[in-house]
Amino acid sequence: MSGNNIKKVIFIEDEDVIIDIYKMIMEKVDRDDIEAIFCSDGQKAIEIINDNPGCIVFCDLCLSGISGESVLKKIDTGLIKKIFIVTGYITSAIINKEVEVIQKPFTIDQILKKIKNNC
């Protein structure tokens, strides 16, 4: 399969325990045409997102360093297929038509469904 057919799912999270949960979820996806990218640094995430048009992004709102909200402001959202903010907090600043909020704690099935419905 060529690299152009690979769908990218980018997880931006700075808590190791949540990253481990995302990795477990991706094992359950069990599709060769989906690649997961994990990033704990918001600034690096901006580069990764902008280099992967058509990706799906799961971004924690509260990151160390640059916030998830700042990440959203600095990326080209027109190139992204879907953005999910994963958070225990909700602010009106992040709720818009381009972003879907997933409340923490989330379920494995909830994230699996989002991936399967958008890839």
Report on this structure.
This protein is α/β, with parallel strands linked by helices. The protein has one domain: Rossmann fold (3-Layer(aba) Sandwich). Helices cover 34% and strands 24% of the residues. It has four helices and five strands. Helix 1 packs across helix 4 and helix 2 runs parallel beside helix 3.
Uncertain spans, ≥5 residues at pLDDT below 50? none
The total of beta strands comes to: 5
What is the CATH level 1 assignment?
Alpha Beta
What structural category do the secondary elements indicate? alpha/beta
Widest β-sheet, arrangement of strands:
2-1-3-4-5
Total of helices: 4
Describe the main β-sheet briefly.
5 strands, parallel
> How many discrete domains?
1
CATH superfamily: Response regulator
Quote the beta fraction.
15-25%
**Looking at the structure, what is the overall shape?**
globular
Q: Secondary-structure element sequence?
A: EHEHEHEEH
Quote the CATH topology.
Answer: Rossmann fold
As a whole number of angstroms, the C-alpha radius of gyration is 13 Å
Question: What is the CATH architecture assignment?
Answer: 3-Layer(aba) Sandwich
- Overall average residue pLDDT: 88
**Termini distance?**
16 Å
Fraction of residues in helix: 25-40%
